[in-house]
Each structure stands twice: as structure tokens, then as C-alpha cells.
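Our preliminary data section would be incomplete without showing what the modeling component actually yields. Below, a chain of 385 amino acids is followed by its predicted structure, encoded as C-alpha cells that our downstream tools consume directly.
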Amino acid sequence: MSSIGSVIIVGGGASGLHVARLLAQQKKVVDVTLVDRQDYFDWSVASPRMLAEPENIERDTYVMPTAKVLEHIGKRKDRSNHTKFVQGAVRTISPKSVTLDSGKVLEADAIVIAIGGQYGNGSIWKPLPSHTTKEARIKAFKDLHNKAAKAQGIVVAGAGHAGVEVAGELKAALPNVEVTLVGRVLARSSTEFQRRVKKNLELMGVILQDGHVDVDTPDNNRRVTTREGHTISEVDLVLKATGFSFAGDQLADETLRNDVSKRGQFDCRPTLQLKSCDSVFAVGDIVVVPKGKYSDVKGIYHAQATAATVANNVVAFLQKSKPLEDFGWSSEPIEMPVMTTLSRKVTIAEMGMPHFMVNFMGRMFKGKNYFANLERKNFGYGKTW
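Predicted structure:
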């Protein structure tokens, strides 16, 4: 089968792999090369559980071999010879090429940027640059879990979805450790959903504190003082779920730099092409959300939605046969459906249905292992790995 063109996908997370999957399913054949510094796909949504139960990371398939995932993706449409993986850190992204740290240059007709973002201050809720192998990733969680288990008090800074779930999972795993969650709980969710999550956190014994934490470690007296002046005593460890940042400014070459925002994200046209470059597309969290619009706070859903638009538009761009489609940004905050897991036994859900029903569904689907058991077959579990 002859190809209509070639694409390099930079980033092997949820958005990058979904673009690869959708391109492999297209009627027209596209040569796809996915590049990532890691040799595994990290199920980052489960990072709170990885911290609470690091001994179960492999059993629950929170780390999946990227090469084998892509082999499965290619096999589904007999595109194995057109879908490949290159492990390596990307140094520079250009309109039609990618340069690796090794100096190797990969060329293609189109580039898809799917690098996502990172939490600041060394937080491991997403893989750090040093976590290039699954062994390094698992060891990092085991080391942090052991440190948390020896603590008397832990402060979790940031009460978005990551912070809330980290606080709940930690308290469930280490009930004798005092866990204080600092921040406005799930600020982008409905008032009723916030109330239910707060209630369950407090029932578990998590201490809730409004405010902001600007420090990475407690002071010499084991105290943490919030920006607002509240002091938390007997703290041994600060875990930060704040400061989400992006590296677009570090990777874009001079021809793409004008499309990078101050936060390091990429400014895109409605087609998710960079504003000044037809051949470069962006997906997932790395895309600047237009003013007055909203993205889905559930990162995987946003990744999949943007990936669908980009995959179709890449094919249209390569064929030069039809207009590209616009991505459908939401004009209102997306509050449902949402599930927040605090432990294997506690998941709070909001789906426009009776609470007892959706909470049960949440425990069955997300509470067990953050959807991994439902999704892993789509990534080749039991077939290519």
C-alpha cells in the first residue's frame, strides 16, 4: 500500500497515541513515526494510586511498552510497516523535521506536537525527564511512598483533580499520617460536586485548608506557612500538585517561536494548526485554549477530542483535497461527566444521575484501577505484550 505522506508525532502520551491510532485507521495510508524519550506509555491519570500502591504498578498495567502499543495499533489495520516508534529526547521541532538530542534529524511532511505538560518542582504526577524506562518510573514512586510512610505530617499543595486524589489515596494507604490538602477543592467543578468531595475527604480524615503553598519543603521547625499566613505544624513532606508548565518555548525552532505563548503552549488556528505554520499541528494540553472557550478538565477526554480533529486534518493536509475542519471548543465550563477517586472504596461521580448509582459506577470503573482494566486491551494488552 502506498502512503499519501509522512507524519512525526512528538510525544507518546494519551494524545500522541490517540493520533497514531486514528491515523492508522484512516482509509488512506499515512507513514507515522512517534517519538518519545520514554520507552513506555504512562497511565498518568493513575499517578495518585501509583504513589499509594507502587507495588501494584505493573500488575495494574499503569506502564505499557510504547513499541508494543504501536505494534498493536498498526496491526489493527495492517499498518505495521507504516507505524513505528523512535525512542529519544527531542531537542528541536521545525516545520517539517524533528532533531533529537543525539543529533539525528527525522523528516516528515507534517508534525504533530503532543508533548503535554509537567507539574513543577519535581512532582511526579507525570513522568520526569529522568523516567525514561518503566523501571525508573516505578522506583521513583516506591522511593516517594517510602518517604511518605515515614512522615508524621504531609501537605498536599493544590486541590485540583490531581491534588484531591493524591490526598485521598495517601490517607487511605497511610491512615496514621496526617494529610493536609491546601487549596480550593476542585475549583472548576460544580458547587454540589465540590461539597460531596469535601465531605468524603473529611470523613477519611484529610484536613482541608484554603490558601496557597509556595514552598517545596517545610522549614527547620517542620512548619509550612501558606501565602495567606496560616501555619501547618509537624510537616515532614510537601507534595505539590500545582505549577503545571509547558516546554513549547524550549523545543520550537525560530520559525515556530512566535506561536508559543508565555506559558510555553502553542497558539493554534481553529484547525489546530499552528497560527503561522500549515504543516505543524498540536493536540491536548499543549494547545492554548482560546479566550472565552473551555477545555475538558479530564485530560484524556480533551486529548482524544483534539486528536480526532488533528488526525482528520493531517490527512486532509497531506491530500490537499478538502478543507480542514475546526475543533469544537466549548463555550461553557465542562462539569460533567466527572469522577474523582479517593481510594479503592471511594469514588465520587457526577453524571446527571442519582448519586448512589453513579458512585457505584465510579467505584467499579475508576476506583478499581483508574480505568486501566477497561482501556488496556485497546493498547494491545494480551495481544502484543
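The longest strand covers residues 31-36. Residues 185 and 195 are 9 Å apart (CA to CA). Preliminary results of this kind motivate Aim 1 of the renewal.
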